[in-house]
Design goal:
- It is a single chain.
- With about 250 residues, the protein is of the alpha/beta class.
- It folds into 2 domains: about 1-80 and about 165-250, 3-Layer(aba) Sandwich (Rossmann fold), CATH 3.40.50; about 90-165, no CATH class.
- Helix content is about 35%, strand content about 25%.
- It contains 9 helices and 10 strands.
- Strands 6-7-8-3-9-10 form a 6-stranded mixed β-sheet, sandwiched between helices. A 4-stranded antiparallel β-sheet has the order 2-1-4-5, covered by helices on one side.
- Helix 3 packs parallel to helix 5.
């Protein structure tokens, strides 16, 4: 059984059919990319998956559990975490404090003066482990908002990892990055498959073809096709929806 499944998802906004009976699945340990031209419905689909929108029809299933009607926080409890297009960090706090808040929120504990010292040490250890996992161990004392853009995006990923997700939604993680920062993010994402599945929404086709095990192509709210990177790269209909003569590597 797939770790994650979307079955026949439909979302209407008045007369607009934004999500047209979309079905896809993500396997354990897989990086599955979702691509498509602007206006294809990617954001609407991801908002339904994460719980920001409720579908009109269809199912969202994670780990064999129907989470279609659950709010966002309960989906997180079932193992779904999301990074948004716009970075969501606490910019005036240190990197360490950002990570402490995240691990505290998901551990069910709080920083109180009567809290056992061992428990507080455990939270600090978890925060430092997260920092090391994403390569921010040397920036723990830095103010989050003063970090370079790529490092802020990396911190955002670390905050999402604090919940130990089964499925991580990455919504355009390379947006606004330079080549070096994008390369670092690609390297980080490659390591994530060891402990979870990843659903990646990204316009950087070079990164998509490097990272993805499978790719689903969304056009006008429908899944046009799904397959391996080689199958998608050479698919004539996929090339056509990217205006024919453009290659997927240069499409936005």
């Amino acid at each position: 059984m797939s770790l994650f499944q979307v079955q026949g998802l439909v979302k209407r906004f008045g007369g607009l059919l934004a999500t047209d009976h979309v079905s896809l699945s993500v396997q354990h340990g897989e990086i599955h990319a979702l691509i498509g031209p602007n206006g294809a419905g990617k954001t609407t689909l991801v908002n339904q998956i994460s719980g920001l929108l409720t579908p009109d029809e269809g199912l969202v299933v994670l780990g064999g559990v129907d989470i279609t009607a659950l709010p966002m926080h309960r989906r997180v409890a079932h193992g779904l975490s999301r990074c948004f297009q716009v970075t969501r960090i606490f910019p005036k706090q240190s990197v360490r404090d950002n990570l402490l808040l995240a691990v505290q929120a998901h551990s069910g504990s709080s920083f109180r003066f009567w809290q056992p010292r061992a428990q507080a040490r455990g939270l600090y250890a978890q925060a430092e482990q997260l920092a090391e996992r994403v390569g921010l161990q040397h920036s723990l004392n830095a103010t989050a908002g003063a970090l370079p853009h790529g490092a802020q995006r990396t911190l955002d990923v670390a905050l999402a990892l604090a919940s130990a997700p089964k499925l991580l939604l990455l919504d355009e993680p390379m947006a606004g990055m330079g080549p070096d920062e994008s390369q670092q993010m690609v390297q980080l994402i490659e390591t994530l498959r060891e402990g979870m599945a990843v659903l990646l929404i990204e316009h950087d086709m070079e990164a998509v073809f490097r990272l993805a095990d499978r790719i689903s192509v969304l056009v006008y709210g429908r899944v046009l096709t799904a397959g391996t990177p080689d199958e998608i790269r050479n698919h004539p209909e996929v090339q056509a929806v990217y205006l024919g003569t453009e290659t997927l590597e240069t499409a936005a």
